[in-house]
Each structure stands twice: as structure tokens, then as C-alpha cells.
Amino acid sequence: MSRFDQLYRKLIVTKFFTRGWGEPENLKKMFDFRKVLGNRDECYKLVPPDYPVTIDKDELQGDVRILEGHFESPFKKCVPGLMPKETETARFQMVLPKEWKSHHKPVCLQLAGTGDHYYWRRRTVVARPLLKESGIASIILESPYYGLRKPKRQLRSSLHYTCDLFVMGGALMLESLVLFNWCERHGFGPLGVTGISMGGFMASLAASVYPKPISLIPCLSWTTASTVFTKGVMSQAISWKVLENQYSVDTVYADEIKHTLISPEQVLGSTYNMGHEFVKTYSDKLENSKLNQSPSNTENTLKERHSHAFIDHDDKMDVQADIHSMEDYIVKKSGCKGDNKTVGKSPIDRKSLKDNALDFMRGVMDECTHLGNFSVPVDPSLIIIVAANHDAYVPRTNVISLEQLWPGSQVRYIDSGHINAFLFHNVQFRHAIADSFNEQIRKYHS
């Protein structure tokens, strides 16, 4: 793996999931809704073809035309109560030519990678050059939790809860359908979708729910996010102690949520099912750790661990409030009472806690992000994947490949790590986009 990837991640101090997994009920809702998202026919019905979109600005900037617009995210109505208020309005920018040079009006939807807030980078590095080189326009969609859609108490790109990532993905799938339908109504096409890193993965999800042939160019992403957050360098950016302690205190994660995690209808083999092995094993691990606990010191031990974990929060102003709220949470869930003046030695095996949390992370990530749980895009021959040979962010070992998952697709490899490819290989990304669109035009629009 790229040493530069590893060094780069160490220089970034922000942490993810600093407030835990998310409310158990919210996770359950997402797992249930994932089954709908995983069925293209059912998902497509959630977004009417005439879904309202408002254009706020239409102006010329030099040699391009810029549109900006917004609409209410369909996710808000489909799964009420999960989206923070700031995320509910989807916002986008469109980069168009002054005049089209052919009867085709190709448009590529661009989804954001981790940390890609607002429109500037995608407009400058991809949209404008792509329009100039290949005549392909772009729609740049702002992700939930990013830019103008970022919750007020969230620091930069650091999602507070693991569940937030699943909300982001589900919202982007439905919002992409809104924009695809809007493009069709206004005579744009052929259509495609792309993104880099997390944006590439979200692009794959978006293409899975569109019921027509579409160009898909996922760059620096793969088939599941489980390896990203448990094996890749991003695993170093997760607040594991918070997740470990919350998992051990609230037994609903082990006793109830595991039963909502299902394997995809299509059996993908042992490499995929590895992510679900925790369903069979972690309950036993949890029970063994519980046998070693004594009611007299459980509360104080967990309070101490939670306090230390929350001291690492990026949002320093809320540290004390978080600690007190977690104290109340722990007392309520553990059922312990007393004056809590005596703190004994920890009865909980830290390694067991870590293993349980890691297994649970693999399971929930595979459940909500593994592409095997979603429909295969209508025409895989229009899929061109661009991957980095030495990617330390997106490990591909022991994970089913995209070529196997989507027979007919092709993978192009860059001899680079993740960060170097992100910074210096955008030409290859744009070439892949142009090639996929040309193939779509040849097959369906000539």
C-alpha cells in the first residue's frame, strides 16, 4: 500500500463517528429501507418523473453556462426523521456549453468524495475540462452533511454517527433519480454518473437504481465500504472507543439489530459473506465478556471509558455536555445504581470490545454498502472503473471484484496510491468518462 496514503491520513486529525453508531431505531430504519433501495423497480417508484426542481440562477460565465438549483430530498419523505434539517434541501450546479455542437446533449452527474464541499473542485478539475475536451456537461450535486447541507454542530467532514453515512448514501440515490428524470424532461442525454473515492462509490449506488442504460465511471472505489473503515487507513480516523463502549452498553445492537442484517439474494461467495460472519460469532463473545462483569463497578468503568473517548471530539465546545449525556445514557442502559464513588479495575476485556465493534462495523457496512445487495446496472458494458494499484484507502484484498460482481464492466488501473491518483490523475478519469459516453452513444444513440 502507498506509504504516502498512510502518511497523509496521519496528518489529518479529524475523527469520524465521534458520537457513536446512531440511535438503534435509526439503524433499523436504514436496514429496512436498504431492502427497498436494493430493488431497482421498487426504488424507482419512490421518485415521480415530474418531481419538482427549482432553478435559482442561470447565467453565462465566460465560455460556459452555469445553472444552480435546489429541490427537497425525496429521502425526507421516504424515511422521516433521519435527515438533519440542514441536509433536507438538495443543491446542485450545472455546467453547460453556450451552444451544443451536436444533436446529443450528454450530461454526467458528479458526486462528492470525502471532504469535497461545495462545487469549486469538481467544477474546476472535472466539469470545465470535460466540457472543453469532450463536449460533456456536468451536474455537481452537493452531498448531505457537506457544504450548505452540513449540520451546524458538525466539524468539517466528520460525520457524527455511523448511520449518517447510510443516510447520505440513501439520500444521494434518490436525489440522483430526481436529476436523471429532470434531465430527461429537458431533453438532455445520454446520461452518466461519476465520482472519486466515496463519490465513486455513491455513483455506483446511483446507477444501480436507474432503470435505463447509463454510463458509470467510479474512480478509486470498490464493491464495499466495509474494508475502507476496518482495514484501510481510514480505520485510523474512527472513534473506536466510543463505538466499542456504546456497543457493549446497549445490548440492542447485538440482540436485535443483528437480526435485520441479511445476505443478498445472490450468493457472492465466501469473500463477501466474511463480512456477515459476526452474526454467528459476536453474540458469544459478548456473553463471555458479560459473565466477567460485576454490577457494582460496571457503571463507573463505562463512565470512565466514555469520558476519555469523548475528550477526543472535534467539537470541543460540546465535550462536557456529551460526557454528561453519555453518563445518563450508560446508567439507563446498564441498569446500574449507586453513588458511583468507587471505581474498580475494568472488568471488560478491551480486546473483546474491539473485536465486537470491528465485527459489527463490518456487518453494518456490508449490509448497507456492499454492491451485491443492490441491483446490477442495466448495461455493465458502460461501466469503466478506475482503480489505483497501491490504494491504502480502499483495500481490495479478500473482496469480490467489480468485474465479478458486474460481468461486462472493465477496470483500468493507475500505478499510484489513492491520494496521488486523486491529485494528479484526473486526466485518466476524464478519459474514462468520455470513453463510456462514446460507447453509450454508439450502442443506443447513433
UniProtKB/TrEMBL annotation:
Range of residues in the leader sequence: none
Superkingdom per UniProt: Eukaryota
InterPro entries (alphabetical): AB_hydrolase_fold, ABHD18
Pfam family, one: ABHD18
UniProt name for this protein: Protein ABHD18
